[in-house]
Amino acid sequence: MSEADAPLVEVRDLKIGATVYPPGEKPHEIEIVHGVDFTVERGKVLGLIGESGAGKSTIGLATLAYGRGGVEITGGEVRVNGRDILKTSWRDVRALRGGEVTYVSQSAAASFNPAKKIMDQVVEAAVEHKKFSRKEAEARARALFEKLGLPEPDTIGNRYPHQVSGGQLQRCMTALALCPEPDLVVFDEPTTALDVTTQIDVLMAIKEALR
Ligand SMILES: Nc1ncnc2c1ncn2[C@@H]1O[C@H](COP(=O)(O)OP(=O)(O)OP(=O)(O)O)[C@@H](O)[C@H]1O
Ligand SMILES: [Mg+2]
To answer: Is the CB–ligand 1 distance for residue 58 below 6 Å?
Structure first.
């Protein structure tokens, strides 16, 4: 199957484990994702539902071939655009992350670098992956800020992360994820940290920006 007809994401029998270090016991492996299968077609949205600790973030990060500290993808396949990203080279994984696949985390505050201006961070992946020139990427970022309903979309990028509100920073992270025009965006509960009325605004803004 060529890249063009393959589904965007195909996950088969994905197993993820972690090493735990209980006091007084030998460190041992536990399984946290027990053989998950799903497919995402191009242009579609798939939601993962599960209680806290069920493995949603862990599965989402696996689509970037990433396991958080102590977590290891132990089996199965994750195909993005037809190729198994768990078996490709490090160089290919770098091209994937921030280029083909981007990620909006549960906490924008913990994801932005506090010492760098918002614009520099929003355009970084798009420019590094040579998707757009710096100038084009900044124009895209300003258009996304506007679509996402951020105040002063032309200049808000000159602020540092602590100079915008929590909900605004969460929207900036969505702009960061959309700026490189990725094939797949993984949204990890992008509104969990927000109050209920801001949650609705952010979800509507994301829907608008994805059009
Ligand atoms: N390094 C680790 N060592 C041991 N267990 C881990 C490690 N990382 C994650 N886990 C466990 O893996 C499980 C899945 O975590 P994950 O963050 O994917 O859950 P989640 O479904 O996203 O939950 P939430 O809704 O709270 O965000 C949890 O039970 C967590 O405790
Ligand atoms: Mg989670």
So the answer is: yes
Which residues, including other chains, have CB under 8 Å from residue 142's CB and lie 6 or more apart? 153, 154, 157
Which domains does the chain possess? 1-87 (no CATH), 98-211 (3.40.50.300)
Residue 105 Cα to ligand 2 midpoint, Å, equals 9
Rounded Cα distance, 191 and 206, in Å: 10
Q: pLDDT grade, residue 54 (50/70/90)?
A: very high
Out of 20, 34, 57, mutate this one to test ligand 1's pocket (max ligand atoms within 8 Å of CB): namely 57
pLDDT tens, residue by residue, 131-174: 999 999 999 999 999 988 899 999 999 999 999 998 899 999 99
The H or E element containing residue 125 is: helix 118-128
Residue nearest atom 8 of ligand 1, based on CA coordinates:
71
